[in-house]
Amino acid sequence: MLNRIKQKLEAAFPGAKVQIADTSAGHETHNSSGAHLAVLIIYKGFAGKSLVEQHQLVYAALKEEMREQVHALKIKTRSE
Amino acid sequence: MNQEMKKIIEEKINSSAVFLFMKGTPENPQCGFSAQVVQILDDLGIEFGSFDILSDESIRQGIKEYANWPTIPQLYINGKFVGGCDIVRELAASGELLELITQ
Prior knowledge:
heterodimer; A: GMP Synthetase, Chain A, domain 3; 3-stranded mixed beta sheet; 3 strands; 29% strand; globular; B: Glutaredoxin
């Protein structure tokens, strides 16, 4: 799943640097509904956009995954 | 989204200058991310209103659509959506959160 999510993000943000980590360990007690992931995306196209807009773009790129497989997504975005 | 749900949500958001949709209550958060936002607001001495989305499934789905934001918690300041846990943490660290509130 991590690889597919990384590919989706790289497709949505061409030329971006994408790092992804599974941080599910430590959340076992309430982890029945999906993985805990953390992503860092450095993408020139984020320049001039608010943090809310940047994170909305990330959520939009992972719409299907957010519905079922991902319980929590920690997002960090930068434009450079 | 229907007008009735929009009205219900906006009444809540506008009931307090700072308003948090969360899982659980400030005294008893039901999710680590909600707990973190409560902690940040408390640490800064910011008073806020809140609503436990676990108590109402229609509002839980409604605010996701309202803010175009798929996760809880959601923080609103002066009626405007500010972000979820990660953004609130960033804004608190940079001092921008207090600026937003005192504007």
